[in-house]
Known about the structure:
This protein has 290 residues and is mainly α. It has helices at residues 10-47, 51-54, 69-76, 78-111, 117-125, 132-146, 152-176, 180-188, 193-204, 206-221, 225-230, 239-244, 254-289. It folds into two domains: 10-54; 71-289, Orthogonal Bundle (MetI-like fold), CATH 1.10.3720. The chain starts with 9 loop residues before the first helix and ends with a helix.
Amino acid sequence: MTTTHPHLRPGANVQGRRISRATAFAVLAAAAVFLFLMPIIWIFTTALKPTGEIFAIPPQLLPQAPTGDHFASVFTDGSILKMFANSLLVGARATILSLLLGVPAAFGFARFRYRMSGALLGAALVTRMFPPVALALPFFLQFRELGLINNTAGLILAYIPIVLPLIIWMLEGFFREFPEEVLEAARLDGLGTLRSLIQVVLPLSRPAVGVAALFGFLAAWNEFVIALSLTRTPDAQTMPVGIASYITQFQTVWGQMTAASVIYLVPVLVITIIAQRGIISGLMSGASKG
């Protein structure tokens, strides 16, 4: 025979456990956010520190005498701004070309199944299994023969095998779950496969395409090894290569390097924050409709 304390209600223990779990989850979430944000915060604050404070012992998170000298030095260096423009140009064009190829490819893999479709999909995605350092040497040898070394056009072509499989992989799963009733209605209206994709599927799939485009752009935006292998001068180099150039044989120029990193981080952070809510809400809406 079991007894309960006369002053405790049966639901009190359940409510207490829920509060404890919520508190534990909040603590873990706060710790995870801190671990992710701390490197970014350190980069921002280091960029504002005078050189003497950067090497202070013990290190301090916040600058005692904030300065913008490191940013001024970066902005007066035209090569860094040129590399920033190259990163934007190469990432955007590689993403656009990959979308033009990847959207119909993903739709075809998702909606038209045949004996070898799985093998062909695996072949299309296989380059994602290799680290960029494994692709750098083959790319260098081939592009040298084609005269595309130290050329933004060559870098765009090199990024397509990196961005395209990512876009196909993300969109193939989405198109596979696309409502068949919508496609059947498009066929009854006399639309062929291509017109159905352009006029019906794509307008309803804009959130998914936006997510794929964002991740594809970030893959090109952050790439370093291939850009280092295929470029030689600031006319073709991207921003990751320019940031790494502050690490020299004799010293690391931490002030300018962190300032350049901030300049490189801010656009991506702003775009991600602005697009996040709309993309997530659109995906959830599409999922509920499907």
